[in-house]
Amino acid sequence: MAETLEFNDVYQEVKGSMNDGRLRLSRQGIIFKNSKTGKVDNIQAGELTEGIWRRVALGHGLKLLTKNGHVYKYDGFRESEFEKLSDFFKTHYRLELMEKDLCVKGWNWGTVKFGGQLLSFDIGDQPVFEIPLSNVSQCTTGKNEVTLEFHQNDDAEVSLMEVRFYVPPTQEDGVDPVEAFAQNVLSKADVIQATGDAICIFRELQCLTPRGRYDIRIYPTFLHLHGKTFDYKIPYTTVLRLFLLPHKDQRQMFFVISLDPPIKQGQTRYHFLILLFSKDEDISLTLNMNEEEVEKRFEGRLTKNMSGSLYEMVSRVMKALVNRKITVPGNFQGHSGAQCITCSYKASSGLLYPLERGFIYVHKPPVHIRFDEISFVNFARGTTTTRSFDFEIETKQGTQYTFSSIEREEYGKLFDFVNAKKLNIKNRGLKEGMNPSYDEYADSDEDQHDAYLERMKEEGKIREENANDSSDDSGEETDESFNPGEEEEDVAEEFDSNASASSSSNEGDSDRDEKKRKQLKKAKVAKDRKSRKKPVEVKKGKDPNAPKRPMSAYMLWLNASREKIKSDHPGISITDLSKKAGEIWKGMSKEKKEEWDRKAEDARREYEKAMKEYEGGRGESSKRDKSKKKKKVKVKMEKKSTPSRGSSSKSSSRQLSESFKSKEFVSSDESSSGENKSKKKRRRSEDSEEEELASTPPSSEDSASGSDE
Predict the structure, then answer these.
(1) Basic and acidic residues bias: where (predicted)?
(2) Among 2.30.29.30, 3.50.50.60, 1.25.40.10, 2.40.50.140, what is the CATH number of 4-99?
(3) In terms of DSSP bridges, do strands 305-309 and 341-345 run parallel, antiparallel, or are they unpaired?
(4) Peptide bond into 363 cis (omega under 30)
């Protein structure tokens, strides 16, 4: 007889939904792992009281009852597997696996039995249907009537909203059968009632999803989020995991609560509750319980009076009430020293945390991916730039997650982490020894060591060390001295092209100062030259008077034949017309083409002739324009100055020469060296005529010589 039995495609019925997973039966008990959430149900062999085999919608199913009243249903078995399971139950669990079929008569009159957390409606000895009371969200009573309302299931296409039972009156005095029925339901139902005072209240906590500020009231069995607009009641049974994640700025902390089923607001589903705390916020907390009750309920995990950081208090209280370990980042450290990687997911920027047993991304939308559901990962080149890369994860269900815009420096650290966790890398292909070493039936957040506890111990040690250390951190680093003289010297050497190769060491200080001054001036001039931008060449527009280029032989023929083609093919489009014309031209004889070639040659000759005439006319007009410009300049000079003979003419010429200096003349006067003057003259050779007219008055004696130069 085999020690274990394993079934891969098994469905567990939980709150009306069928969750796919893996089932393993061993001598110690029965383990079922949910493929979607990673949650593990562990039933000890000694707790089993009854096993029932029956035909259901998905083949055959197994119904298990335990001593504490819990009911577990697993479907998806084949009929041939009954004998194997029956023998296993007899050998290892000392239980008879009974065959019990459901009643399919269709009657609506029968008896109701309450067994543990199950309501069973029977006709005779056969059950018609069963209702897990944990699915009931509300129970209301009327005259001879009880109405049950149920939690809604998002995954199911059709959900059961309510069931009504008619309870006939009985002759027994003092007992109301309707109230008795309702009390039996409410004692086991998942109905959240805020009775009594909260254990503690955290005021105005910043919540990222759902967004807003909420007061969190902690009750013994559920969590109450009270905001300005919405209220949420979260039973602790729906909490899957707890995460405490440091922000990249090392000043804030994320506290993430994973929920299944999620909380709802309209059509929106929140699978994660994310709180953001500042590390500087402290709180003193007093629990609304006496010390004996605290000790009895929490067994030393909490005390009546506590104080510390706000995020520590919230995480500590949640850990004690939910009875789940807090997951924190492991040994991973990125390029910047942080325990996370900045990236983008679905066009929103966030942080990706590599954990010991998975990845979690916060915060919009939050994503948690376990290692055991990953098929492979892929390192892809960034689509927009080579400075970043994409990290792709594909799960065994075929879902793909792409985290983009990761800095190139993070590649080595992330690759080493993935390699150490023995995840399959698509780029490299499958290699031997890359199979995961973790147990497939282990819970995804159950580590052998409590990482959160170790983290708290380390932080406590660091605080003690900081308190004991003396603050002798004096600024030993000396700033680099800033020497303006040295920098100026470097600049002069960079720009000075005429600097002498060697200088004598016997020269005096005054000569050196003069040389430095000259070099600085030259550097300044050279810098000004470089900073001047070249004038942008504006493309001249086409002259409308210029003769048009001649057409080719094909275009001449097309213009002449276009109307004929249209008449031969009525309704033809422009593109089809051009295609048809091309086909006709291609099939035309050489003699007919020569005729159009001659016409094209004649048109080309006429164009060349017209072009010569046009260029000749344009040259004369440009000369006329130049002469007009000269006359205009002379008239302007005469208006501005009324020259007189003798000394007055000389003084006026000097004034005019000073007032009509162009930019080139001003810059050449500022530089006192003769070499620079000659360079400036060469540069302004293009506009020499206009500049000379502007700088020399027409009445001066030197006007003739100035114009001849």
Answers:
(1) 534-546, 577-624
(2) 2.30.29.30
(3) unpaired
(4) yes
